[in-house]
Design goal:
Layout lengths: L23 H18 L4 H11 L8 H9 L1 H13 L5 H14 L3 H9 L2 H5 L9 H14 L2 H8 L2 H10 L4 H20 L5 H6 L2 H13 L5 H17 L1 H5 L2 H10 L5 H14 L13 H10 L3 H10 L5 H22 L2 H12 L12 E3 L5 E3 L12 H11 L5 H17 L3 H14 L4 H7 L5 H11 L7 H25 L5 H23 L7 H16 L11 H17 L7 H19 L1 H15 L15 H6 L21 H5 L14 E2 L7 E2 L2 H17 L3
Antiparallel strand pairs: 1-2, 3-4
Helix pairs in contact: 2-5, 4-5, 5-8, 8-11, 9-11, 10-11, 11-13, 11-14, 13-14, 14-17, 16-17, 16-31, 17-27, 17-29, 17-31, 18-20, 20-21, 21-22, 21-23, 22-23, 23-24, 24-25, 25-26, 25-27, 26-27, 27-28, 27-29, 28-29, 29-30, 29-31
Bound molecules: zinc ion (3 copies).
The site of one zinc ion (ZN) has 5 residues, from helix 11.
Protein name: MYND-type domain-containing protein
Pfam families: zf-MYND
Organism: Steccherinum ochraceum
Length: 715
């Protein structure tokens, strides 16, 4: 947008300000005011106008932190001067625009920003929107203030959304106006609708459905810039928090999100995936929490349909969950009958420890019974130190520990028994505490990590099971159970993290790392888990959703790459139904179904948008490049607003939110080099500063592999 036109000097002058007053000092001020206005009129281009004004008002260097500090020290006086000039030249576009731009520049400093906002800065910016030459300056200023402000100011700015939407309607093809309006709306309205405390009245007053509709229209335009698209995406993500129904009610937007799954950019796909997951929360059902092993045993007795038996035989019937469970239940009974005879708790401990790591429902409560004379079962005392079978576990553990010449293996078994006892009694914190102690004694037993993985703390669980997956003493059941836990924890943490973070933030990269970790583990799960694994359908749903996020751009239009996973899902559903468990409409299932349902049509309807976005992101990835749609080379006010040399080493925030692109390499920084645990809190190898680890244990375990590359890395 060019600066204001240079008017001829010899036109009749309009008296402004207090010119009509008789007071002498005011008259002289009026004269100087008039001279000042004429001088500004002679300056061309916004950068020059701002420079002129800074000199005229003798302002310190606004590009330097030290200059801003000096403004801070003399704020009242400087503000009064600028404000007088602004108010006494109403309608003078160059003066109003230039002064507002100076204020915007001051807004990079939080203290100055708060003072300016309190003085009514936003109200002073808005009149610029309706003057031809100041419109873009006004929008740039508002965008700058928005990018530097917090919730309170955002709410103030959000109230002016109707003006911004009107500009978007009036100038549908002006890329700069649209990207500035959308980025301002994205931050201001986005903050208001995703605030921790949901303010219903405020959100309703913002008319989110209309905002989303107009932003969607702007995002679909072939002129949409990467800045506009990313800010539009952020707004949609923000809306998923409190008003997901507003997104669901807007088919073109949901369709655009489905199309974004195909775009050649990880953050675009991840944002779309997060949107699908979060808009499917309402109306979804909880996963089956309670699991009755008796139903499984009955299902085996009823016999599975032939084609399901075939699938289970292909895997290895004796390794399938159903079969193992039935077999283990029988062996458990037998072991108890045996101990009633021989009273050998040591031998019982050996057997139980083996059963416990074989399948999830290995031991259950029961007791020794006999039938009374009326044929009713009653508990009998067979002379053992326990009555209820589960109470045998700690006693067996003790027997193993106290045996003469107890080996390390005996101690492992004893710990497994103690831990299982706590688990089955739902005393999870005690199970975790015991497992942590056991790991200190022997870090190679996967079951100990499995136990920590049962905890409610997802980060702790994930960290533990990732280490457990590397443990040498393991069984298929313990392994695929830990994989399931790793997938769900990392998936949930990734989605939550991405929804809260802004693209480009460290938290955002960490969120993507979580999703990649979950996808890796889902692939591993398919390799080792039996077709009747209890968590199969959960994993398949996560797998497909995560595949869209990480590899959506590589998927075929007919999604044939997902067929093997869908086949697993179908088998799992049939097995679940045969057993008699309900096939729940979980959030992940609904999300997966919605994405797959919308995909074919979205690809057709939005073919040109997908190409356009992919090109935008491709260009952005090969930056640095001017990403703003500057329409006139002369107008580099935006660059001036962006420019700040901070002498104190403080990091300046990029006020235009042009984000670094995320790819698998940048995400790699958030994965442990040994156990692949995703985390932002990893420690670097001091040798090469490249490898990253959860802790010294992971580093030590990795050293035999890493030492070769660590030493060859020049640093
Ligand atoms: Zn931004
Ligand atoms: Zn690690
Ligand atoms: Zn190293």
């Amino acid at each position: 947008m060019p600066g204001p036109r240079n008017r001829t000097k010899n036109r009749p002058r309009n008296h402004t300000g207090n010119g009509s007053a008789s007071n002498l000092s005011v008259v002289s001020q009026s004269a100087s005011t008039e001279a000042f206005a004429n001088e500004v009129d002679d300056v061309n281009g916004w950068t020059e106008i701002v420079k002129f004004l800074c000199e005229y008002f003798r302002l310190p260097d606004l590009n330097r932190r030290s200059g801003l500090k000096r403004i801070h020290a003399n704020f009242s006086e400087i503000y009064r001067k600028l404000n007088n000039a602004y108010t006494s030249h109403a309608g003078k576009e160059k003066i109003m625009g230039g002064i507002v731009a100076i204020w915007a520049k001051m807004c990079v400093d939080a203290v100055l920003r708060n003072r300016l906002v309190r003085e009514g800065l936003i109200e002073k910016i808005m009149p610029l929107m309706d003057m031809r030459s100041t419109r873009v300056v006004g929008l740039e200023t508002l965008a700058t203030v928005t990018h530097h402000s917090g919730l309170e100011v955002h709410i103030d700015i959000a109230k002016h959304t109707p003006t911004l939407l009107r500009l978007m309607e009036e100038f549908p093809d002006n890329a700069r106006i649209n990207e500035l309006a959308v980025s301002t709306i994205s931050h201001a309205v986005g903050s208001a609708i995703s605030a921790d405390v949901y303010n219903r009245a405020l959100v309703q007053s913002l008319d989110v459905p209309n905002v989303l509709r107009q932003v969607t229209n702007a995002m679909r335009k072939p002129t949409a810039s990467v800045m506009l698209v990313e800010h539009g995406m952020s707004l949609v993500t923000a809306a998923t928090r409190h008003v997901p129904e507003d997104i669901k009610a807007l088919p073109p937007l949901v369709s655009l999100m489905a199309a974004s799954l195909r775009v050649n950019d990880m953050s675009a796909r991840c944002s779309a995936v997060v949107t699908f997951i979060r808009i499917n929360h309402n109306g979804s059902e909880e996963e089956n929490r309670h699991f009755d092993p008796q139903m499984l045993i009955k299902a085996v007795e009823r016999r599975f349909p032939g084609h399901l038996v075939d699938v289970m035989c292909d895997y290895g019937a004796t390794q399938c969950e159903t079969w193992l469970l039935a077999k283990t239940a029988g062996e458990y009974q037998k072991a108890m009958m045996k101990v009633a005879q021989d009273r050998d708790l040591h031998a019982l401990g050996n057997t139980l420890a083996e059963l416990i790591v074989r399948t999830e429902f290995s031991v259950s409560d029961g007791g020794f019974q006999a039938y009374d004379d009326r044929g009713r079962p009653e508990m009998i005392d067979v002379g053992l130190p326990f009555k209820m079978w589960l109470d045998a576990l700690p006693l067996c553990a003790k027997a193993l520990r106290n045996a003469r010449g107890a080996t390390s293996l005996d101690l492992d078994k004893a710990d497994i028994l103690d831990i299982k006892f706590f688990i089955i009694r739902s005393r999870i914190p005690e199970a975790i505490a015991h497992a942590e102690k056991a790991i200190k004694r022997n870090p190679h037993v996967a079951y100990f990590y499995y136990a920590i993985g049962l905890g409610a703390n997802q980060a702790q669980a994930l960290r533990a099971v990732k280490k457990g997956l590397k443990a040498k003493q393991t069984t298929p059941f313990v392994k695929y159970y830990m994989l399931w836990r790793a997938i769900v924890s990392a998936g949930n943490m990734g989605v939550t993290g991405l929804a809260m973070a802004k693209a480009g933030d460290q938290e955002y990269s960490e969120g993507v790392a979580f999703l990649m970790s979950a996808l890796d583990d889902a692939e591993e799960f398919f390799k080792i888990a039996p077709p009747d694994a209890r968590h199969m359908s959960v994993v398949v749903n996560w797998y497909i959703v995560l595949t869209f996020a990480i590899r959506g751009h590589e998927l075929s239009e007919d999604l044939r790459e997902l067929e093997p996973a869908l086949k697993r899902l179908d088998i799992s559903r049939q097995i679940t139904e045969h057993i008699g468990f309900p096939y729940k409409k979980t959030q992940m299932r609904l999300s997966r179904e919605m994405m797959m349902r919308m995909w074919p049509k979205a690809l057709k309807d939005y073919a040109s948008t997908i190409t356009h976005y992919s090109k935008l992101y491709e260009e952005a990835a090969h930056g640095p490049k001017e990403e703003r749609s500057v329409t006139n080379a002369e107008d580099n006010l935006a660059a001036w607003l962006d420019d700040l040399h901070l002498e104190d080493g403080e990091e300046g925030r990029d006020m235009h939110c042009v984000h670094p692109r995320i790819n698998s390499n940048s995400v790699e920084l958030y994965r442990c080099s040994y156990c692949r645990n995703p985390s932002a809190a990893l420690k670097k190898c001091s040798g090469c500063a490249k490898a990253r680890y959860c802790d010294g244990v992971c580093q030590k375990s990795h050293w035999s592999d890493h030492k070769a590359t660590c030493k060859t890395t020049d640093s």
